[in-house]
Each structure stands twice: as structure tokens, then as C-alpha cells.
Design a protein that fits this description.
Two copies of one chain form a homodimer. Chain A is α/β, with parallel strands linked by helices and 412 residues long. Chain A is built from 13 helices and 13 strands. Chain A has helices at 20-32, 47-51, 63-68, 92-103, 115-131, 157-174, 195-205, 222-236, 274-286, 298-301, 308-326, 354-357, 378-384; strands at 6-12, 37-43, 55-57, 106-113, 136-141, 182-188, 212-214, 238-244, 290-294, 332-341, 344-353, 396-397, 400-401.
């Protein structure tokens, strides 16, 4: 390993999470303390900040405010959804990035995001190698969807899972106070993977959660769904359902986007999401009082319900990215490995090839979902439970959250 | 005062709150310790439990589980929305209630609810007086809407307000991560009074909240609303709006129910609530990315964000109801009086006539709302801030809420 001296850039990309800034703090705090790293820059809106020469000098921030990043939800530096071109087809952006790297003598690049962001990170890494520009590129994982390949789980997932489980437990109490009964449908994020929707079953495992849980890993069958809801509603007088936004028919059509058909009574949905759509169908079929609740952005920014484990692991992922890079590693994403030690959950970092990670989705194993596709099995619960543990001591001001306030001084 | 020995009944009524069971615990714990009270019954589903002879013997519950009621959201005994007839027109229900009272020697009746429930409580109180049946009847206030007459505020309001303010602060972080901009519309409960929607302005007061807040105390003007959103969106690239579900046009029509008109582009809404409706209108007008979020049941059962002040005051209200009744008071509702002591907020209980409270709504004073009707003034913030203070130490099991588990043994 050769020592490589130079500046670093951190970018945040894709949909934010409630702990993404804990990873940012892991990168920033570690980089600020690394003798090899001469300056620490935060890119405004991910790779766009590099393209537009909008870099914040993290060394100019008050250390106490930086520390608050651990408890501040949603990309503090700004995020982006920017698809990089294939450099063999169009290398304009890559040349621009190289220009910025040279201008600031950037030798370390840390990119924090999900599938698409790892693709960006991978492309930049490969381009710099090809261009012969020495720069260590590391991906830091982040996604509430938990669908990154090769890692046991992703930073951000557990806090969203805890938010979902806790909210389901509370709504469960509320949705059964009247003797008139109710069907309650909770819509949860996760377009292609059901990790988040499955977390609703944690509430059930603790005695107050959905009767039915639908993940996008299986095909949705409206008739079976309605039959199951009706049966439970008749039996118990109430029925609670958790659905992933990504549930779809066998032909791949999302239920949320399905158009009118004579058989299923569809065609109501013009506004409102899946929960509202399903609520209308259930109401028509059963005559029950029905309420659809979409957890929407709340589930991915609910830092007040963050898992302490998730916060610490997110920090650790950022820290490991810097430490490994300084030690000569490049072209990798930091991942997590789960170890059982004396019957306890322990999480270790691992290094994965960016090429392997980019654009590969990890789904919930079919055997973790019950045969009828309306619930999850015990292995799913065992998987997610250790991840949500621990209550962080949240900084507050007058009983409201005290989030980090960054000065965001532009680098010159 | 004459000592009156006998059993007591507690009923929970109307929409639940995240601290309604703290009042129940205040009643139950105090009553179980009162020598005058021979048995403590919880009515299943409010007054319906009295009518149907479905009373739970609270003395049979484990004390530790009863204590957990302080942190368990939503009417643990079950609630109802049951409108009592005018006893002069139809006294069937009242005779039935008297029968149950006599059967169990009930001499104390505590009813925990909002406007309609206080009407029920008042009618029962007056009927018992007329029937010459000695029974002390006390109302215990409860409503997230905070619209009960004569009391400074209502148990349940502050915790919902804190949930709303905190969630707005978190969503604020999330709704501005991209450089592409977004309009975010948050729909908050409160059909006739804007106390809850106004609480969103707490988030703004702490630097991360809605730019615009609309309460039902003023008439809604769609043109002004769109102009305000467009102006802010152009200026800042983002705009966050909090709306009460009860906003209405000058003719009283709820905006959520307004039908298509040629001028305002309405007529989309078939599913989804007000937030989805307004989001569609704003999208059409501004072309911006728009997201509508309905806080729905989450805001009234979010016990994990409860205000410790609210929990303690809710408990105090229940306790005061029992203590006053045992001391000879009847036909009153417990209310709150706000006192400033050495510059600090102090809350004392007061006694209000049930007749005065029943069916009278307290609205947000017009002068606490800004002239244009799109925000609240400082006195509103000063009013609500002390109420949301304090973090309760929430009982958890594996980092998930541990709610009370009642045996609900039916009284014989």
C-alpha cells in the first residue's frame, strides 16, 4: 500500500433515510482526522455538486453541529437522482468530474446511496482507473429498501422498519376501538422488494399488528386478498392489512396502477395511492368501514424512532469506507456481515466489489414468505429484530428535534 | 358533604387519543384506592357497555398492566360514537342505564370524552338527578381537537400536536433533498377547529416547518392559496403546506368535498383525502413535483411521541374527577387552568358545569391567525409550546412498545 495524500469528496445520492447523515458523519469525522486526507468536501446534491463545482468545506463546520448529523434525517448535503451515461457513449460528465477532482486534488471519493448510486460510483471508479487518475473510490450503502446485493442488510432499513412496526402497533390499538369494526390498510414503501412491508409483521409478532402482509416478491391475487380480508373481518370484527406499494398482478402490472376491470371493481383510483385504491375495493366488497393509510415520507425520515443499532452501523459504514480507502482499498462498497457471537447479533463490515453491487437487487427469499403470500415466516422476524434494537438519546430543544445546522461554506 | 359508598363506572367515548388511557389510569388507580368506592368497572365501548351490561372488573387486573395504560394509546376499554336521545322524547336508554347502575350499585360515573361525550355525560347526570338516584357524575375531558369549551386545553391535544410538529420537522428535511424542488402538502385532523393544524407552525418556529398553514377558522380561497404556493415555490424552490382537513369555502363547503368547477380545476378527488386533492390542483397549476401526506390515525395514536406534560395532566384529570366526586362534587367536567408561576407554565384543574361544556366548541381565536389566513401568530406558539414538553420513559420490549394487556374480566 502506498500512502495517497489528497482531498476527499462525499456525496449523498438517491432517496434519503433517517440515518443517512450518520454515515456522512462517519465519513466526515474519520476523514477530518486522517492525516492522508487534506480537505473534506461535501458535494451538494450528490454527483451534481461535483459536476457543478458546488462543494462544501466540511472543515469549516462546527464539530458539535457535525455530530448532530448522527440524529438528523435526510441527506443534509442534498441528494440527486442522476443517471450517469455509459462513459463509452458519452464521457462529458466524467471529464467534468475529473476536472473537479484535479482542481481540488481529490484523491478519495465516497458515495453514499443505493442501487443506482452504486452504479454511479462504479462507473466513476472505472473511469478514473482508465484515465490513470489515482483516486480511491468507495461506496457507502444506504437504502430503506434494503435491497443492495451482497450485504446482510443496509443502513437506513432498520430505522424505517422500526418506524413501520411501531406505527402499526399504535394504529392497531386505534383501529379497533369501536364495536362497529374496521378494515385498515397500511401502504408501505418498497417498489420491488418487500423488506419494509415485511417489517410490519414485527408488530404482529408482538401482539398488535396486521393480519395480512403482502410483499412484491409474490404475485398479488385480488380475489384471494378480498376473500382473506372478508374472512378475518367476519371472524374478528376487524382486519388490518400491510401492503407494499409494489404489489403487482402476475403480468407485472402494479396494483396501484391497474385500470378498471369488470371483475375486480377497479377504476376508482385517480388520486391517492395504493392504500386508497384497495380501501375502495374492500369497502365495495365488504361494506366495512375502511381506512387506507399511506406511511409516505414519514417512514423514511422518522429519525425520532431510529434504531440505535442502525445509527451506529451507519456511522461504522462511513468510517470503514474512509479507513479502508486510506489503507489502499478502492473500487469497493462497504457491506455488512452478520455474525452470531454467544447467541448475540454482531455486525461486521465487509468489502464488496462495486461491479457486483451496482444494479443488482436483493429480494426477500420466497421461503421467508408464507405459501399463500399473505404473511412472512419466522426467519424474517429473526432477521429484522436484532436490527431495530436500541433507543438513541435524541438531541432536543424544547422537546422538539434539534437537527444539525450546517453553514455549507463553498470550497474555493 | 355526605359520604356516598358504591361502585364506579368509567367509560371512554369518541375518537381516541394517545393519552386517553392515562386518564383512565388516573380514574382507575384513584378509585381503587378510595374507601368510598366499592368496585371499579370499565364499560366496554363507552356508554354502550352500560347499556349492554358489559362491564369489566378493573380490580381483577394486574396493577403493573394498569400502570402501562399511561403509555398505551387509544381507548383500552373500547370506545363508541353513540348519540343519546333527548330523555324527554325517548328515555329507553336512560332507564336501561339506571337499571345497570342499580344492579351494580353504581354511585359514581366517570365519562371520558370530547364534545359529544360530554353531552352524553350531561344528559345522564340530569336524568339521574330527575330520577332521584344518587349518583355523582363527572366528565373527564379528552380530545386531540382541543375544542372543549371552558378549559385552557384538553388532554390528548398536546401529544398529537407534538407528533405533528415533529413529523413536519422530519418531512421538511426530506422534502428538500433534491435540487428539483417539491411542494409538500400535509393534511392534519381537525374538522371544525384548527388547533392541530396550527401546531404544525411549531416546526416552523424551530426552523423546519411549513411555509403555509391553513386552519378552518378562516374561509379558504383557492386562488390565494395557489398564488401563495407558487410564489414561495418560485422563491425557494420548495414549499411546504399544512392544512386542516376542515378547510372550507366561504359557503361552508369543505374543500375536500368540493366538486368539479371550471375555474379551479377541481373534480379529481374520488379517492384519497384533502392532501391528495390539493396536490393534484397544485401540480396542475405549478407543474411542480407535489406530494400529499395525510397524517391520518398516526397523529392521534402516536404514543411514542407523547408529551410527558400531556400524560401527567391526563392522569391528573382522571384523578381529580374521582377525588372531587368522592368529596361530594357532581355534574361537572374537570378542566384545566393555566397559571404562570415565576415565568413557568403551571396547570391546575378546575371544575366546569357539564351543561356549559356539552356541545360548545372552542375555536382558535381569529387574532392568533395571521390576517391573510395562511399562518398563525406568536401567541399560538406561546400557547402550545409548554404543553408538548417532556419525554416520557416509554416501556419497551425488544425496542417495540409494550402496551397494557388487560384481562377484561366481566363483572357479575
Amino acid at each position: 500500500m502506498s500512502e495517497l495524500k489528497g482531498a476527499c469528496i462525499l456525496g449523498q445520492s438517491g432517496g434519503p433515510t433517517s440515518v443517512i447523515n450518520a454515515s456522512a458523519y462517519g465519513v466526515i469525522a474519520t476523514a477530518l482526522n486522517s492525516p492522508a486526507i487534506t480537505a473534506v468536501y461535501g458535494a451538494e446534491h450528490g454527483i451534481k455538486g461535483v459536476l457543478n463545482d458546488r462543494l462544501f468545506d466540511m472543515g469549516k463546520e462546527a464539530p458539535a453541529e457535525l455530530e448532530l448529523l448522527k440524529y438528523t434525517p435526510s441527506s443534509a448535503l442534498g441528494s440527486c437522482r442522476y443517471k450517469m451515461a455509459d462513459p463509452d457513449m458519452d464521457d462529458t460528465d466524467y471529464k467534468r468530474i475529473l476536472e473537479t477532482f484535479k482542481k481540488y486534488d481529490v484523491r478519495y471519493f465516497f458515495y453514499n446511496g443505493g442501487n443506482d448510486s452504486m452504479d454511479t460510483c462504479n462507473k466513476i471508479s472505472k473511469y478514473m482507473q482508465k484515465a490513470g487518475y489515482e483516486c480511491r473510490v468507495m461506496g457507502v450503502p444506504k437504502t430503506i429498501d434494503n435491497d443492495l446485493y451482497g450485504t446482510d442488510h443496509c443502513p437506513g432499513y432498520a430505522s424505517a422498519a422500526k418506524y413501520i412496526a411501531t406505527s402499526c402497533m399504535e394504529v392497531y390499538q386505534d383501529a379497533r376501538v369501536y364495536d362497529t369494526g374496521m378494515v385498515c390498510i397500511i401502504e408501505i414503501m418498497g417498489r420491488h422488494a418487500g423488506w419494509l412491508a415485511g417489517a410490519a409483521a414485527l408488530a404482529t409478532a408482538y401482539g398488535a399488528g396486521p393480519d395480512l402482509v403482502y410483499l412484491p416478491e409474490t404475485d398479488f391475487n385480488m380475489e384471494e386478498f378480498l376473500a382473506d380480508v372478508e374472512r378475518i373481518y367476519k371472524e374478528k370484527g376487524n382486519c388490518m392489512v400491510a401492503v407494499s406499494e409494489g404489489i403487482h398482478y402476475p403480468d407485472g402490472t402494479f396494483v396501484s396502477e391497474a385500470k378498471a376491470s369488470a371483475t375486480d371493481g377497479f377504476g376508482h383510483a385517480q388520486l391517492g395511492g395504493l392504500a386508497a385504491t384497495l380501501a375502495a375495493v374492500v369497502k365495495e366488497k365488504t361494506g366495512a368501514k375502511v381506512r387506507g393509510i399511506e406511511l409516505s415520507l414519514l417512514q423514511r425520515c422518522g429519525a425520532h424512532l431510529a434504531s440505535e443499532t442502525d445509527i451506529e452501523e451507519s456511522f461504522m459504514a462511513g468510517k470503514a469506507a474512509v479507513e479502508n480507502a486510506v489503507n489502499g482499498i478502492t473500487d469497493k462498497m462497504v457491506g455488512f456481515e452478520r455474525i452470531e457471537r454467544d447467541g448475540h447479533y454482531v455486525c461486521k463490515t465487509a468489502l464488496l466489489n462495486l461491479t457486483d453491487v451496482a444494479n443488482t437487487e436483493k429480494k426477500v427469499p420466497r421461503e421467508w414468505i408464507n405459501p399463500r403470500g399473505n404473511g412472512v415466516e419466522q426467519p424474517f422476524i429473526d432477521y429484522v429484530l436484532p436490527l431495530i434494537q436500541g433507543e438513541p438519546k435524541l438531541p432536543k430543544e424544547d422537546s422538539l428535534p434539534r437537527f444539525a445546522k450546517l453553514k455549507k461554506v463553498l470550497a474555493k
